Amino acid sequence: MSITDYIKEDLLARICSGEESGESLTLQKLSGQYGVSITPVRLAVSALIDEGYLHKEKNRRLQINKERIKTAGPLSPRPEPPRDYYELLKTELISLSLQGEEVFIREEATAEKFEISRSNVRHIFSRLVGVGLLEHYPRQGWKVRPFRQSDLDAFIEVRVMMELKALELARTKLDPVRLKEYYDNNRYPSETEQQAHIDDRLHAYLIEMAGNPYIYDFFERHGRYFEILFTWEGRDSNASCQTVEHHRAILSAMLQEDWNKAADALKLHIENNHPLLKNLSRPSSDQSITIFSHS
């Protein structure tokens, strides 16, 4: 199911069930609700207009055709959202990257496995190049970036220096209300939860408020790949609890304006918050994966 078909069917189901009263029937609002650009929303709305479920008034506002809705027949269940192939491929590539192997990916086999077009595969691969998971070699193909412990160690070494400098530059410009929000959003799991709730926006906030373009450039160029790995690591229950503990220690010191303590907590967090990646044992290659070929 395409994203346009999903929006059309989901919107119709919401209208028929009474969940959609018509107040939010603008392209902008629907685009925000579904988290997509206006184009698939416009196509979905046009299809519902053609089928008579919606109509446009003279002022161009969309209205629900209640008479047509009455004849729509039994309510259909809400459709399942379409698969996010970017996330699916990203997850698979993270696993391959962590194996530390030099692996090339074939467009044709990937398209066949996931039942999507080669143009879609190429678009997704280009996005994954942008976040550092893939490298493109003309006339050779797409290579997974292999994880190297030495790369992580080198990145962390420079990251410590950069973020401590960002803290030094930003500390007089930080908003206590925002810091308190970050503190409150870092929560240990409740009795019904398995994972802690991590809010890691503090790091980007420090870099933004530091106002140093070279610090920003370092993280834009070199941080995206590691951010993906850190997010993967944060799915582990113990790792997520440790992250919350570290974040709250940093933010508590910042709220008290104890900048030496905040710097020490930030340094400790960056250097010691990767229990999985620091102790990674290489999983064996999955021979059932057919979209990859070793270089």
UniProtKB/TrEMBL annotation:
Presence of keyword Protein biosynthesis: no
Gene3D superfamilies hit by this protein: GntR ligand-binding domain-like, Winged helix-like DNA-binding domain superfamily/Winged helix DNA-binding domain
Domain GntR C-terminal per the UniProt entry, residue ranges: 154-272
TM region(s), chain numbering: none
Keywords: DNA-binding, Transcription, Transcription regulation
InterPro entries: GntR_C (IPR011711), TF_FadR/GntR_C (IPR008920), Tscrpt_reg_HTH_GntR (IPR000524), WH-like_DNA-bd_sf (IPR036388), WH_DNA-bd_sf (IPR036390)
Keyword Ubl conjugation attached: no
Gene Ontology MF annotations: DNA binding; DNA-binding transcription factor activity
Domain of life per record: Bacteria
Name of the featured protein: Colanic acid/biofilm transcriptional regulator
Origin species: Polystyrenella longa
